[in-house]
Amino acid sequence: MGKTYQIGVVPGDGTGPEVVAEGLKVLEAVAHKSGIQYDLVHYDFGGERYLRTGETLPDSAIKEFTQLDAVYLGAIGHPDVKPGILEKGILLNLRFALDLYINLRPVKLYPGIATPLKDKGPEEIDFIVVRENTEGLYAGSGGFLKKGTPDEIAVQESINTRKGVERCLRYAYEFCQTRNTRKKLTLCGKTNVLTYAFDLWERVFQELGDDYPDVERDYAHVDAICMWMVKNPEWFDVIVTDNMFGDIITDLGAMIQGGMGVAAGGNINPQGTAIFEPIGGSAPKYTGKNLINPLAAIMAGHMMLNFIGEAEAADIVEKAVKKTIANHLKSMEAGKMGIGTREIGDLVVKYI
Ligand code: IPM
Ligand code: MN
To answer: In 3D, which of 74, 73, 197, 217 has the Cα closest to residue 132?
Structure first.
């Protein structure tokens, strides 16, 4: 008998619990088919708990998470909680405390999904973004001087450590080597203006590149990347970038792959645990209406299976999702799919 995986589940806020329920249904079906054993450990972190108890994330949770094989997260964000509290207290806290230094975000258009890009299809839109997830402008370095006065100064610094940059780039090179046969790694930076931060990124990118002679090295400024993601998305295979640029370009990526309804991501420590999530947020206005698209959460489950080493099961899920899209979905947008949240989960299970 194989191992029993320990999977943490954080359904979170808004539509999070609904989409996680469908994801777990799919996980159960594929585990049954593939003979995978797992235990689920449920956590109620999110806006509701914060409003009830004033606590975002207890320290004990961080310790427990390090013992898990992976965590499956719905969405964090509550209309009654001031912006920043849950984001910093839960999402960013977990990324830093668990040192989840990679944020992996596929941008892949599946057949049958509409993209806003004219004349582009699944052949052209299939790349992945490796976003550094623990440094840069997100590191929280900076502060105010003379706050609230006419002489006020606000400083927000981008922290880029040699270690942090190197481990992210190395992950991207290695990922690029095995992803497919294209083996093209694009560094997304801003070397013409951010002449310290991206000087470091560019130097390490070139240095490490010698260790991966089969990977083609490519560089583009972040503004140009935004343009080309729209005009020539087929140019990209793997894009590696810092935290802030990665945040921005992956929202653009989500749109060209058909919207937040399908976009999934993973916050990963390659030597430790990882958190997989639909990247769309809690979408409070759709809560409890069976209108939200669960495919992003289901695809987050697919990424989680890959991460824990169950690539075959991950493949089965992806194929079932493709069939569901091709045969049943009118649109990827909440409320316009033609069928409901639960029905989509049922169809994926049926195809598994
Ligand atoms: C994301 C989100 C987060 C980020 C927010 C909610 C803190 O936008 O996961 O991309 O900026 O990283
Ligand atoms: Mn974002």
So the answer is: 197
Options 3.40.50.150, 3.40.50.261, 3.60.15.10, 3.40.718.10; CATH for 1-101+263-352 is: 3.40.718.10
Note residues around ion ligand 2 (Cβ under 5 angstroms).
247
Ligand 1 centroid to Cα of residue 328, in Å, is 31
- Note if 3 is an active site residue: no
* Cβ of 247 less than 6 Å from ligand 1: yes
Atom of ligand 1 nearest to the CA of 76: 6
User: What CATH number should be reported for the domain whose range is 115-257?
Assistant: 3.40.718.10
Helix axis angle, 16-34 to 295-308, nearest 10°: 50
Contact 76, 87 (CB under 8 A): yes
The pTM of the full predicted model, rounded to 2 decimals, is: 0.97
| pLDDT, position 104 | 98
Q: Does the active-site annotation cover 285?
A: no
Q: Which residue has a Cα nearest atom 2 of ligand 1?
A: 247
C-alpha 134/C-alpha 60 separation (Å) is 21
Q: What is the pLDDT, as a whole number, of residue 2? A: 78
Ligand 2 centroid–CA 343 distance in Å is 28
Q: How far apart are CA 261 and CA 244, in angstroms?
A: 22
Q: What is the pLDDT of residues 73-105, one digit of tens each?
A: 999 999 999 999 999 999 999 999 999 999 999
